[in-house]
Amino acid sequence: MALDYFYPPYEVVRNFDRCINCRLCEKQCANEVHRYDEKSGKMTADESKCVNCHRCVAVCPARALKITKTDHAFRDNANWSGQVITEIYRQAESGGVLLSSMGTPKPLPVYWDKILINASQVTNPSIDPLREPMETRTYLGKKPGRIERGADGKLITNLSPQLELAVPVLFSAMSYGSISYNAHASLARAAQELGICYNTGEGGLHEDFYPYGANTIVQVASGRFGVHEKYLTAGAAIEIKMGQGAKPGIGGHLPGTKIVGDVSRTRMIPEGSDAISPAPHHDIYSIEDLRQLVYSLKEATNYTKPIIVKVAAVHNIAAIASGIARSGADIIAIDGCRGGTGAAPTRIRDNVGIPIELALASVDQRLRDEGIRGNVSIICGGSIRSSADVVKAIALGADAVYIATAALLALGCHLCRSCHAGKCNWGIATQRPDLVERLDPDVGAERLVNLVRAWDHEIREMMGGMGINSIEALRGNRLMLRGVGLTQKELDILGILHAGE
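-> structure tokens emitted (501 positions)
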């Protein structure tokens, strides 16, 4: 007799006094958790299929449902937790690699929460952002090391290509295929209205989104999916993806079940075939090789687009960034270990890489020490959760930040972390037409716009409280930060003082 080693991690609690047997939960659940039992005349639930996405709870008109964490437990053991035991059971049963979605749930240090922002009082007056000029616009790209004037005394303004952002926030790379058409449309429309950019990810660009090119960053990954001349010239910038914070050192994998219809055509691969991008680019094994690709892309776009190189935050990130800054790239994007993903091996997601705060601070300081900070702009990502995180990131040295999980949450994501299954009940990480239509791109775009505008307002308020009236004056201004509960080594890497100093 086969044994069932797994008890469902979540339980569906149904109030039968409220339940009206409308069966809406059954119709709305892509995981087939709910079912109407004709014999008993009641709704039942197969809790083993529940991913705790909250869709049934949200749509229940009688408020008869809630999902709770099961209280079924293994014997207490600090070393062999219930999760560790269950994961061993799963691998013993399947012989496969454990896959997970979104960011790591492990209690890794969140340094944003241990950093406080300084405020002005008497000697350095604060600024009222409602009544005084306040600039949150920023430009990403190489900056000149000195001011140059012509024979007539006028400034020479031959700047390298710049990416203009009305707010120092961009929507990070999420490919068409990993997310739905409607989710992609929401990001594109919101980016255009906000005057910022969204990133295509490594899945190419659907033809419907070419009109948003001025607000689009097109990505080139090792698989080269969807990369062609029109694609490269369509965007405002080009990003070379070398690594991703949720899975440093490994490539991407979109299951064949998601390679359907327009996804197949956009990626230029057959329907049903797995889209696998290996970890190394077949033509990059050194900074010199990277430089060759950077300039090949510049040549292909007539030197009109800034080139971004995206890397995962790892222990030697400062040295890597120094090499990238010398490769001819205009922008470095650094992705921290708490970043999200559509799918990653669980062991990689939870154990490889370093937090973005430490990586960002070390990169900014290294480039300043070497006198090349102006050669590149820095975008940081990997669990940017609020406007306060944005302010702290810029004060640590970033020029702008990438957000992805926060953007998906704005679209309705409930972080059930089952994106790789392709059954997203909120119409985001799925290609099933019946699920995709649940996300209205007009509503999605409006919610994204609301989120970023709210953050922009809060950024202005915090900058005003610091007595700072521009993003440029905030960038790298670590004197405006203080640490709490940090070791001296952590304070040294972050380059900030302890609270009270």
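The CA atoms of residues 137 and 167 lie 5 Å apart.
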